[in-house]
Amino acid sequence: MLPLCAAAVDDFPPVTSDQQYCMAEAMYFEARGDGWRGMVAVGEVIKNRVDDPRYPDTVCGVVRQGAERGDRLCQFSYFCDGKPETIGNRELWQQAQLMTDAVLSSDGISVNGVSDATHYHAMSVTPWWAATLDRRGCVGNHVFYQ
Q1: Cα separation of 128 and 110, whole Å?
Q2: Are strands 142-145 and 119-122 parallel, antiparallel or unpaired?
């Protein structure tokens, strides 16, 4: 079940379709197994990075950061893992699109505890930078930091 009614989506301010697609794609491939809360949490990290001068100032720029090096060390691993981005679950893809609209709206939607996060990783790994940041919480299979 989705947390928003479908009619409310029409009330969100428009963003460019490229930016929406980049956000929905990242939310889908990074967190589709974590439900809507996981997708929103990943979306918040992307949005927070867009607002942070240390990162690119567009959603697509943030999501694709590092791809230009060609070393498979992107900020968002799905984008540089060498696998095609094939949408395998239409229902979860639609949910990612709906959550994209909610995250990018002016009022936004957030997940308690991780709304200020700028980093996250899967629980199955421990990146070197995790010890250098403040842990904010966990959503699904991911740990979030600022």
Answers
A1: 27
A2: antiparallel
Helical residues (DSSP H) of the chain, grouped into ranges = 6-9, 17-31, 35-50, 59-64, 90-104
Neighbours of 63 (CB within 10 A): 27
Q: How far is 131 from 96, CA to CA, in rounded Å?
A: 30
Contact present, 45 and 144 (Cβ < 8 Å)? yes
8 Å CB contact between 42 and 79: no
Res. 36 pLDDT band, cuts 50 70 90: very high
C-beta of residue 101 within 8 angstroms of C-beta of residue 35: no
* pTM tops 0.70: yes
Total length of the chain: 146
DSSP conformation class of 111:
-
Rank 1-5, 71-75, 97-101 by mean pLDDT and report only the highest: 97-101
